[in-house]
Amino acid sequence: MGELDPTFIQELEHRPKPAVIEAQGIPQIDLSAFVTSSPANPNAPEIRDLVDQIRDASRDWGFFQVINHGVPIESRERVFSASKRFFDLSVEEKRKVKRDEVNPLGYYDTEHTKNVRDWKEVFDFTVDPPLVIPAYESGDEETFLEYCNQWPQHPPELREACEEYVKDLKKLSNKLLELISLSLNLPANRFEPFFKDQTTFVRLNHYSPCPAPDLALGVGRHKDAGALTILAQDDVGGLEVKRKTDGAWIFVKPTPNVFIINVGDIIQVWSNDAYESVDHRVRVNSTKERFSIPFFVNPAHYTVVEPLAELTNEQNPPKYKGYNWGKFFATRKYSNFKKLEVENIQIYHFKQPEERKIDDVVSRVTNVVI
Ligand code: OGA
Ligand code: NI
After folding, report:
1. What are the boundaries of each domain within the chain?
2. Most buried residue among 8, 210, 278, 358 by CB atoms closer than 10 A?
3. Which family is this protein grouped under (predicted)?
4. In Å, what is the CA distance from 367 to each residue of 1, 187, 328?
């Protein structure tokens, strides 16, 4: 080892710096008031207080951590240990369930973020199979494909551990969507219809020790494209979040049994930029392997994502044109697989022309890649 394949090497400006600032600031929020009383009374003082915390964190950070979230620790530990057993298998064995050009579910170790290869391997599965998404480049607006999960034979407990975990995480994700909805002064169930046929999926991430952790990243800087992400990480650490106030990369110190929540691009659009989807990335290290499990909460493929009417008016007109989630998702998956030499599809492309001009100036001045 010692030599790094050039496809992993980040541009100089994106390489991780040794100086690390710890995440003093990423708010930690106690969900017990909401998890225990269901349905919660939104006017009860403890719920109002909780909703205020969610609003502040979503607006100021785009990230927060939750404790007393109602997910049993055993449920999560079972998935982490089955995941380790899976990734310990030989590459040949893992590739028996590999994703391919069309099916985005299964194992792969060749993902690219912004056209640089990520130092990781993953296993993806959907929470409500089959996953329905438009056929890419079929030229036919009405063609959809259905994908089933590709469960490996080994380790045999992986499937059940994941399916149990998903039941718990769905409850948590519904609670979080209710809280975010309340925090935008909307009824708790405002988002519910979008998730009837959700395309939510889970990713088991494995980052092995890297010979050149100063040149590569586990996942390059990116924003999550879906509505919400609920991340479980182990005790190694590596996640960094870009602080909105000054653009500094903040290390998210692992805390046992918390979930890290971030608002994705879809909530940014629904909220008409009241909440922003924030850049984050993953550092790797030369000695320890790391595991993490994001649960990507995504709406039905037929959802047209656009600013919610209740959150826009003449003074605050919609900043985005609507886009079809299924097509967006399929395009992203396809271009990641192919490593196209073009910019990945971004919500920025759906910004209204006058908003886009403002962003162009901002991105030139601050050198932010959108
Ligand atoms: C991701 C991601 C963070 C982590 O997979 O989108 O941001 O800590 N993962 O693995
Ligand atoms: Ni992410």
Report:
1. 6-350
2. 210
3. Belongs to the iron/ascorbate-dependent oxidoreductase family.
4. 34, 38, 25
